[in-house]
Amino acid sequence: MAANSKTPTKRWRWLGLVLLLLFALAMFMGPGPGLRLVNPEPSADSEALRFLGLPVIYAWGLFWYGIQAAVVVTASLTLWKTDDE
Amino acid sequence: MPDPTTPDLGLLPHFCLAGYLLFLLGIGIWGVRKSRSGEEDYYLAGRGQGWLVSSLTIMATFFSSAAMLGAPGAVYKEGVVFALFALNVPLSGAAIYVLGNRIRKLGHTHGHVTPADLICKHYGSSVALRCLVALIGFLYAVPYVVIQIQAGGIISERLFAGEHAFEIGACLLSLVTMLYIMIGGMRSVAWTDALQGALLMTGMLLAGLAAVAVLGGPSAFFEKVNDLPHTSLSVPGTTGSFTPEKMFTLCIFGALGSMIQPAQWMRFYAAKSANALRRSAVIFALGLTACFLFGVMLVGLGGQVLYPLAKPNTDGVFEYRLQQDTNTVAATEADLAKRLANGAKPLPHPDVGTGSRDFDQIMVVVLKRHLPELLGPAGLLLGTLIIIAIMAAAMSTADSNLHAMSAVLTRDIYGGVLRPGASERSRLWVGRGVIAAATVLSLGMVFVSRSSESFDPIGMIMPMSILAIAFSSQLLPVTIDVLFLKRGSRQGAIAGIIAGMLVVLMFSPIPAILTGNDSAMVGLFARLKQLADIGFCGVVVNVTVFVLVSIKNKTN
Fold it and tell me: Which of A34, A64, A84 sits opposite B275 (nearest CB)?
């Protein structure tokens, strides 16, 4: 019984850590220094400014919003649910 | 001044606005009928708010008129980079549960009403700490209330013809807001916020859809957006202000500072259960960010297409209009950074406004000018609905901050320091007096700044609101210690908050007033401000002092 009751706690701890790191990564990459990876050079042609028809910076933001949303939904269905009284 | 070039919306906005304000008053009266006597009911609605009301009131408090006017205005001015500021919203959403649920639990257990109640209980009763926490709450609330009253006046001026449209709009917004808070307390505030929050989300999304429709649908919209100047589609934006490092710190400390300000803190206490906050967190993080990214931010981008900031010259090079002292000058994209560094300010398209502060008008201009053209009578109705949503955004932030300011000044200063033995009944009446006094004072500031050439507190409001969030962020180290770490000392908390607030003050206009604009200190802080968020700078010093003093206390 003791081992069974410990296992989910340990699993949640790992999940919590993974979600925290993923969210921190999304904050760093989305609106943070990670933006430099996709920021077009001043001399770049107009094709470099777009991705799938969207401005590349906007598309980058949408992608990291997706990651943030996935983390919050996962946390609310797992970690935060077990914390409810 | 009303814009004579935009079509008249007729009497429709008058009827809609009158109906809306009467409905809000009705909710206020309903709040009185439902309320029970006592401070806990007046300030926290009996700690029984479910997930729907909790999520909508938290959202409505979070987003002021800045969300509906300022955010599209900033995208119109800076370009797509500012749209990424929306990524601070999921962090705020997560904070609703991670911080909010612990605050709620402690509040329910110990009967806390204000942030200072919880913090002072943890560190042991301290007048100094209580006053500091109350001061931070006060510094946060005042600029926000003033901005919302001003927004009410501006919307009224844009909607209605007439010499005193601004004054009538500002007075009506203040009076109705003051009345329903005074009579119904938190229950009225939360229910009106719920209505306003729903209206706000609908308005944000409709505004985005409208902007896309005006430009011919999604494909045509983004095709035209992709032809904008390079500065509008890249980092750090038109003025060069939004470097990735600054955006990163701004998103983190803007999100957390806004979530631990008194009005939100009291909403965590008011939530019925952990489940209410859990659902609120998800709705907030997903729904509100979407309203930003797919809603109002698109109005700013569409605005750049409809009312370009820069036009190609004969050589095909984009040229911007800038305001240099009192002159209007032109600058190419390549010269833009140099000109801005020399004190020039970009100007919006002449049809949007004539001054460097008129970028915020883009939302109203797009709605008023293009929706009726596109959709006829349905466009009029839609435009009116979105403009009422802007009013809702202003009122919902004003009411929450006035209500929280009343709780902070009454419980923490009047009941906690000036008259510790005051009865609950007398505290409630003082609280109502604070709401009336703060409303009249804020309204007075709006009118004085409008009529006086030499005294312009509104001119300082936008920098003050950024400072307000930075001040609020100074509660973050203490909040994290109280909720999670429990390692700090009372002296450390006081010293850390004072140090953090002093650092934030160094970014205010005060050092320039004391030492002159050309001093080395002013130059240093101006450079720091370009690199990182003000709140972040304060928190770094705050945490350092907090830790060092706490360690010293422990070893002693």
Answer: A84
